């Protein structure tokens, strides 16, 4: 028997897991998100075949729900006439199985409101849709939004509430730029004129539009623009040369390192923001967890894996524990995460640009000591960053006066001070 799958039209808008409502149950919807967890592919029973121990007749039972009750008595005419009470036994070789995999997707970071937790959704895939995605992939799934019915004791404890899942019919990877994801959306001539204008310093105008509320740091903003744009990945003779750059902002407290990280996190279409003390090694790379539903081991990606084809911002990089900091070495250089835990061996993509911020170990930067001694970071880790910015708070009367006037204007008017050009909007920058 052939399998029938439905695919939504190309003009349909992809929803996020947060936008699914009770009215969507039973409807064909398209959901877009990032894969955070993937289970192993297991056989799923579709048609159960039984054989009678008395007459030898075969009985077939289609399985349409997650749970079913096995048949016990033979319904054949011979057993009914003789009243022999034939018993049915399940024949695994004659039954029909299909491939089944469960994924869990999470909404993008730019779709999460401030102060809210990201919503997630379970996907049930079968047949040709299995083994199509792994943790860190951005996918668009079309399927039927259904409630998950429980049985036995779990049904009694659950009451009137029920979990939901998406029965996937079509899965497609979305590993392109944000403009290509928007069904080929292009900039209008007015928007191109606003970006280019009549100024010759086009590169400087784009860089100055990054965090215009922050005073100074022109060269740092130019490097952050290059980090957002990225480069071309090359593989000459099998050797992989990454196209993304890694930047580390180091310096005294109060020089807007964290504010730059927060702005890049909001500006990048795909980004993950975390802190050194609030993240563990497995939280940054990948973890092997036990699925509470099936009891099997599943692979769940960390911040670097979820930021694939994007930017991963790590604040307070110097506060990380030594054991957790070592886990970042492979992702910084090879842009991959190798996992070999509890019998699960896999390699996940972490093709992201890393933007880190670190403070000196003694509070302020001491120019008499080396960079390694000031930050208390090993040289093996610092060598994996392409750009190391040292931001110092040196007392200068004229500069400090302009900085104070800039900060006062921002606090009074809640916007950047007037300048020779108008900074570009964040949506237009994306």
Report on the architecture of this protein.
The strands form three sheets. A five-stranded mixed β-barrel has the order 1-5-6-8-7. The protein is built from 15 helices and 17 strands. The chain folds into three domains: 17-42 and 98-176, Beta Barrel (OB fold (Dihydrolipoamide Acetyltransferase, E2P)); 52-92, no CATH class; 186-429, 3-Layer(aba) Sandwich (Rossmann fold), CATH 3.40.50.300. The protein has helices at 77-82, 153-158, 178-181, 189-196, 202-208, 218-229, 257-267, 281-284, 303-306, 322-326, 329-333, 371-375, 379-382, 397-413, 426-429; strands at 28-38, 42-52, 58-62, 88-90, 96-106, 120-126, 138-148, 163-173, 247-251, 271-275, 286-290, 297-301, 311-315, 336-341, 344-349, 353-358, 387-391. The protein starts with 27 loop residues before the first strand and ends with a helix. Helices cover 24% and strands 27% of the residues. The chain is of the alpha/beta class.
Task: Write a brief caption for the model.
With 430 residues, the protein is of the alpha/beta class. Helices cover 24% and strands 27% of the residues. Mean pLDDT is 79; it is low at 176-184.
Key terms for this structure?
DNA replication licensing factor MCM7; Rossmann fold; ATP binding; 430 residues; alpha/beta; 5-stranded parallel sheet; EC 3.6.4.12
């Amino acid at each position: 028997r052939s399998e029938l799958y439905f695919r939504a039209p190309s003009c349909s808008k992809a929803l996020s897991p947060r936008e699914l409502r009770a009215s969507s149950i039973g409807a064909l919807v398209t959901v877009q998100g990032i894969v955070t967890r993937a289970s192993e592919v297991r056989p799923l029973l579709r048609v159960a075949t039984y054989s009678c121990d008395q007459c030898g007749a075969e009985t077939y039972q289609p399985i349409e729900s997650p749970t079913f009750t096995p048949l016990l008595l033979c319904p054949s005419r011979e057993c009914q006439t003789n009243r022999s009470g034939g018993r049915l036994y399940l024949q695994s070789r004659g039954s029909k199985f299909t491939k089944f995999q469960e994924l869990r997707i999470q909404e993008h970071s730019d779709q999460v409101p401030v102060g809210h937790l990201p919503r997630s959704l379970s996907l049930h895939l079968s047949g040709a849709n299995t083994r199509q995605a792994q943790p860190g992939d951005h996918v668009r799934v079309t399927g039927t939004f259904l409630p998950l019915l429980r049985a036995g004791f779990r049904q009694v404890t659950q009451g009137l509430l029920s979990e939901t899942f998406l029965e996937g019919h079509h899965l497609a990877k979305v590993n392109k730029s944000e403009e290509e994801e928007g069904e080929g959306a292009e900039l209008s001539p007015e928007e191109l004129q606003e970006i280019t204008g009549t100024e010759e310093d086009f590169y400087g105008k784009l860089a100055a539009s990054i965090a215009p509320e922050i005073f100074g740091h022109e060269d740092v903003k130019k490097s952050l623009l290059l980090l957002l744009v990225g480069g071309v990945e090359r593989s000459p003779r099998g050797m992989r040369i990454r196209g993304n750059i890694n930047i580390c902002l180091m310096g005294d407290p109060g020089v807007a390192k964290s504010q730059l990280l927060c702005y890049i996190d909001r500006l990048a279409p795909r980004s993950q923001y975390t802190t050194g003390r609030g993240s563990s090694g497995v939280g940054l790379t990948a973890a092997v967890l036990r699925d509470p539903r099936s009891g099997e081991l599943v692979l769940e990606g960390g911040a670097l894996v979820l930021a694939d084809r994007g930017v991963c911002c790590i604040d307070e990089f110097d506060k990380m524990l030594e054991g957790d900091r070592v886990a970042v070495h492979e992702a910084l250089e090879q842009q991959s995460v190798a996992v070999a835990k509890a019998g699960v061996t896999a390699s996940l993509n972490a093709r992201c640009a890393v933007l880190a911020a670190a403070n000196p170990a003694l509070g302020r930067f001491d120019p008499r000591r080396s960079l390694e001694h000031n930050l208390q970071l090993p040289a093996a880790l610092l060598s994996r960053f392409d750009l190391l910015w040292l931001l110092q708070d040196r007392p200068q009367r004229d500069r400090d006066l302009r900085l104070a006037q800039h900060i006062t204007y921002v606090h009074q008017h809640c916007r950047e001070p007037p300048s020779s050009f108008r900074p570009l909007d964040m949506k237009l920058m994306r």
